[in-house]
Amino acid sequence: NILVAFTALWIVANMPLHWLMRIAVPMYILGMALLIGVALFGEISHGARRWLNIGVATIQPSELMKIAVPLMMAWYFEKHEATLTWRNHLIAALLLAMPFALIVRQPDLGTSILIAASGFYVLFLAGLSWRVMGVLFVGALASAPFLWHALHDYQRHRILMLLDPSQDALG
């Protein structure tokens, strides 16, 4: 597995950037279709619906989206680089919000936070000001109680253990 992973890493690292930009849209569309497939037909394991059986294997589409979301957002900003407006930033935020919402719904807190963070970095690097990023952060904090209720008990327990490691496993 490590040999396969390093081979894939080497191939992607040596790809010309225009090839990566060429696969951004198809990869994002495929990932969104697979996430919708998970929401409709996904396999449930340990209280989470994260996996999709595609016949040959069982896959977790949210892993694909870790790469597809920032690539898609970078592609979108590259295409509109000369005329960036608030509308472009809003569309890019929607490109981020759609997979984020589907992944939070599974629930997969870690992957959803990772995808949100990578999307916010792309938004910031595309020119979104710190002030707007601060407002978005406050909005994310305001939505925390709603997200808390969407979590499963084991996820809440893991978060509480991170905040107070002195609690025992049964507390």
Question: What key phrases describe this protein's structure?
Answer:
3-stranded antiparallel sheet; 171 residues; single chain; globular; mainly alpha; 6% strand; 8 helices
What can be said about this structure in brief?
By secondary structure, the protein is mainly α. It contains 8 helices and 3 strands. Strands 1-2-3 form a 3-stranded antiparallel beta sheet, with helices on one face.
Radius of gyration: 18 Å
Strand order of the largest sheet: 1-2-3
- Provide the structure class: mainly alpha
Report strand %: 5-15%
* Straight-line distance between termini: 38 Å
The main sheet comes to:
3 strands, antiparallel
Overall pLDDT level: 83
Low-confidence stretches: none
Description of the molecule:
The protein has 171 residues and is mainly alpha-helical. Helix content is 73%, strand content 6%. It is built from eight helices and three strands. A three-stranded antiparallel beta sheet has the order 1-2-3, with helices on one face. Helix 2 (17-41) packs across helix 4 (86-105). The protein is globular.
Secondary-structure map with pairings?
Layout: H1 2-13, H2 17-41, E1 43-45, E2 48-53, E3 58-59, H3 61-79, H4 86-105, H5 109-125, H6 130-142, H7 144-150, H8 153-163
Antiparallel strand pairs: 1-2, 2-3
Helix pairs in contact: 2-3, 2-4, 3-4, 3-5, 4-5
